[in-house]
Each structure stands twice: as structure tokens, then as C-alpha cells.
Write a structure and sequence with these properties.
Blueprint: H1 7-17, H2 19-39, E1 55-60, H3 65-79, E2 84-88, H4 94-99, E3 102-108, H5 120-127, E4 137-144, H6 153-164, E5 168-169, E6 174-177, H7 181-195, E7 209-218, E8 228-235, E9 248-251, E10 261-264, E11 274-279, H8 290-298, E12 304-310, E13 325-330, H9 334-346, E14 352-358, H10 361-364, H11 368-376, E15 382-387, H12 397-403, H13 405-413, E16 417-422, H14 424-439, H15 441-450, E17 453-457
Parallel strand pairs: 1-2, 1-3, 3-4, 4-5, 4-6, 13-14, 13-16, 14-15, 16-17
Antiparallel strand pairs: 7-8, 7-12, 8-11, 9-10, 9-12
Helix pairs in contact: 1-2, 12-14, 14-15
Length: 458
């Protein structure tokens, strides 16, 4: 959240009033932030007529895609004259459920079948108990990726829970594989029916801009793993560029126009280039993946590429910019962590602890010279590396968390935030378990609720 103009006066008041006044001011400020957060989505439109209940779009989102769809749908419905608002699933409590007669859910599945982080409060608070929702009609759009074992599992779990609670579906659950255009068109059709109009305004397509591939470097020649590349891109028209650390790039490869791909941005605008860290995936027949093969082999330097920068609000630094930061990841997850380190160093805050894992230090230590330079310059106060194949007994980032348990607890007690980026299958779940062991599950879940534990996993 941006720091308001009232903050300097608030700080002055704290200095004058003393410790009791400071405590009161902090409590008031937190309550002010809480109210803004809870009102933020409903406040994006004019008030509805008295006695009119809006059709609420409820989103469970990890990377922000479900949030974008929900906000877009709410705006379309309002444009068609239908009162509509949007809210994150974590804000849907028992009172709101009881008072609602119709809800539309947009639910992502995170990693290998998990609920998104912003859904965990609802899952623990509501879905563990059976309740009567016989008064409720609902529709559900489930987002997923069929390359994972448990496609749309959270969306299906939510759907089953709603029906077991007596809620009645307005239409059969719609499942979307990696942004599939056909399934999203079905969703659009359902929105049209709900609006009572066949000519519901079409959801605007994301604005794409033209970028040029300036440079591509192979970072791990000789690696036992798949080839990994650092790509540098610049706007084709030389216009100013802006994004925040934690944001994503969305693009559509020529060989698969119906399934857009997303990559974590590895740089900040001040560096002058948008950087991506891309591992060349391999299909069952040994050929490169459609998107990664295009980016790492087929797209020649100097060629243009259409993409959009997509805000990833759940993984931005936000209020954590000035906290100590523990950055944990593996493989190409280093992209998101590198962007955060760059932002922190640019802001002059060096209380950074990096925990990173890959196969071999001699081949797979991406951005090694830069990271070692940051360490030597005290821009990173601690770094631990788990190169799993460099010793007989394999070690991983979760092992380093357990080994550094006392220090990690000290950092968290000092206000640190934890950011995790990388492989959802294996790494992210193992890290989550390790954090639960070190901090206690309740403390870990509290960090998640406070926004001090954030993940960008895939």
C-alpha cells in the first residue's frame, strides 16, 4: 500500500505523545489499513440502489489471473446494468455467505492441486465444516493446467463443498486449461445469460505491446539439467517501461495461440531491460516445449515479440519493502527472487537472506558473479545454497531451512517476510512443511494471513 500523506504527521505525533500514543497510533493505522483492504474491491464502483444486492464475483487467485477475470466480469456486468462487485475468497465469511443469494466463483488451483494462498483462510474457516447454503445459487469458473497431476483440484473441491452444503449451481462448472480461449468464451456466454442480455459487452482483451529480444545467454552449458537461458528484452518503440518486482510477463507462443504462458520477471525497470530466466522444457518425444523452445532457440535476437506485463500483487513487496526479507527458491525461481533483491538493494535495504537450490554449483549457479558481488558488498547479509548433486547425500532448500531454524525464527521475530519462488511440485510444499516445523503451523499461517509469507510457484 502506498504511504499516505498523513504518515509524517502520524510519526510526529508518536514522537510527542510517547509510547502509549505510539501504541494507539499503530493500532489505529492497522485498523485503517484493514478497512481499506476489505473495502477496496467493493469501492471500485458507484453505490448500488438501496435494497439492491450486487452479484458478487469471488476470486481465489495465486498469480492474479483469477483476480483479473473476476474484476473484468464484475465490470462487464456493471456496464450491462447489473449491480456487481468482486472480492477475494479470504473475505467471504459466514455472514456474507448467509446474506448472499447468488455468487460467482473464479478459483485457481496452485501448484500440484493446492488452494491459492488467499483461499487458505476460507478453507480452514469454512470448508472444514458443513453448513447450510440452501439459499445460495452459484456459478464456478475453475482455472488450472492439465500438465499437472491434479487439474483444477481446488475448483472441484470448492464446487463439491458448495453442492454438499446445499447450494445450487447456476450452470455446470467451467474448467479452463492454461487460459484456454474456448472455455473462457463459455464463461462469457454464461455472464451474458446472467445479465439478461445477449449483447453483454465483450471482455476486452489484454493490451499487448511489442518488445525486442536484445540478448540471449545460455547460463548452464554442461549441466546435467535442461538448458537455461537469460533473456533481455526492450520495448520496440523505446518507450519508458514500468513494472514492480514480483510481476509477470504473459505471452503467447506462435505454436500454441490458445494457451498463453507466464514467466516471472527477473529484473527491475531501473536496469534498463526486462529479463527472463527460461528453462528449455522437453516434451515426451524429446523435442523442446512449444513456448520455451521458441524463446530459447527459435526467436532470433533483434526479433519482436508481443507480450503484456501482468501485475502479480500477491508477490509484490508492498508493505514488506522495508522489512528484513528471506528469499527462498530453486531453479528458475531465482528470477523472481533476483528482482526482489534488485529492488531491495536499490532501496538501500540490505537485510536480505537468500536460500537457493539447484543441481551443481559449477553449472547451475545462475547470476553467480552478481550474487557473489552482492554478498561481498554486504547487499545480502546471508546466503545459503543447496546444490543437491555436489555431495553424496543430496540436500535441498528445505534442509537448509531446518538447519538454520534458530536464525530463521530470530529473523521472523524481528519482522521479516518470507518469499518463495520456484517449483510447486516438491520444493514449495517441502518448504511449507519446513516452515511449519520451524515456526509452528499456527505462526506460519499467521504470516500468510498478514502477507508476510508469499509464494510464486508453478
Amino acid at each position: 500500500m502506498p504511504i499516505t500523506s498523513e504518515l509524517p504527521r502520524l510519526l510526529s505525533a508518536i514522537a510527542v505523545i510517547g509510547s502509549y500514543g505510539a501504541l494507539c497510533a499503530i493500532i489505529a493505522w492497522r485498523e485503517h489499513k484493514r478497512r481499506i483492504t476489505h473495502a477496496g474491491y467493493g469501492a471500485r464502483h458507484a453505490p448500488f440502489a438501496a435494497g439492491t444486492q450486487p452479484l458478487t464475483l469471488v476470486f481465489a487467485s495465486q498469480t492474479g489471473f483469477a483476480e483479473d477475470i473476476a474484476l473484468g466480469a464484475a465490470q462487464q456486468l456493471r456496464d450491462a446494468g447489473v449491480p456487481a462487485d468482486a472480492m477475494p475468497l479470504e473475505q467471504l465469511d459466514a455472514a456474507r455467505l448467509s446474506a448472499s443469494s447468488r455468487l460467482l466463483f473464479v478459483a485457481s488451483t496452485c501448484g500440484d492441486g493446492d488452494a491459492p494462498d488467499n483461499a487458505m483462510t476460507f478453507v480452514q474457516r469454512s470448508m472444514t465444516e458443513q453448513t447450510s447454503l440452501a439459499h445460495l445459487e452459484y456459478g464456478l469458473l475453475a482455472l488450472g493446467d492439465r500438465s499437472y497431476r491434479h487439474f483444477c483440484r481446488f475448483g472441484r473441491q470448492l464446487d463439491n463443498w458448495l453442492q454438499q452444503s446445499g447450494a445450487r449451481p447456476l450452470f455446470e462448472r467451467i474448467e479452463v486449461d492454461r487460459g484456454d480461449a474456448t472455455a473462457l468464451a463459455d464463461w462469457q456466454h454464461r455472464l451474458g445469460h446472467l445479465s439478461g442480455s445477449a449483447d453483454l459487452p465483450t471482455r476486452s482483451q489484454p493490451t499487448l505491446s511489442s518488445w525486442q529480444l536484445v540478448e540471449r545467454a545460455h547460463l548452464n552449458p554442461g549441466s546435467a539439467g535442461l538448458p537455461t537461458y537469460d533473456l533481455k528484452l526492450s520495448p520496440a518503440d523505446g518507450s519508458p517501461i514500468h513494472w514492480e518486482a514480483g510481476d509477470l510477463v504473459q505471452l503467447t507462443p506462435p505454436g500454441d495461440p490458445t494457451h498463453p504462458r507466464e514467466y516471472s520477471i527477473a529484473s527491475i525497470p531501473a536496469e534498463g531491460h526486462l529479463r527472463l530466466l527460461v528453462r528449455q522444457q522437453q516434451r515426451a518425444d524429446g523435442s523442446p516445449g512449444v513456448a520455451s523452445g521458441w524463446l530459447t532457440r527459435e526467436l532470433p535476437p533483434g526479433e519482436h515479440i508481443a507480450l503484456r506485463i501482468r501485475p502479480h500483487r500477491n508477490f509484490r513487496l508492498g508493505d514488506n519493502l522495508r522489512r528484513p526479507l528471506i528469499l527462498i527458491g530453486n531453479g528458475t525461481g531465482l528470477a523472481g527472487l533476483r528482482a526482489h533483491l534488485s529492488a531491495r538493494i536499490a532501496a538501500g535495504d540490505h537485510r536480505n537472506w537468500l536460500i537457493f537450490g539447484e543441481r551443481n554449483a559449477c553449472h547451475d549457479f545462475y547470476y553467480r558473479d552478481e550474487i557473489e558481488g552482492w554478498l561481498a558488498g554486504d547487499h545480502i547479509v546471508r546466503a545459503d545454497f543447496a546444490f543437491s548433486r555436489d555431495q553424496q547425500d543430496r540436500i535441498y532448500v528445505q534442509d537448509l531451512i531446518l538447519k538454520g531454524a534458530d536464525t530463521l525464527r530470530d529473523w521472523v521475530a524481528d519482522g521479516a517476510a518470507i518469499y518463495v519462488c520456484g517449483n510447486a511440485v516438491g520444493m514449495a510444499s517441502a518448504v511449507d512443511q519446513a516452515l511449519g516445523t520451524v515456526l509452528g503451523k499456527d505462526a506460519r499461517d499467521q504470516l500468510l494471513a498478514e502477507g508476510r509469507y508469499r509464494r510464486d510457484v508453478y
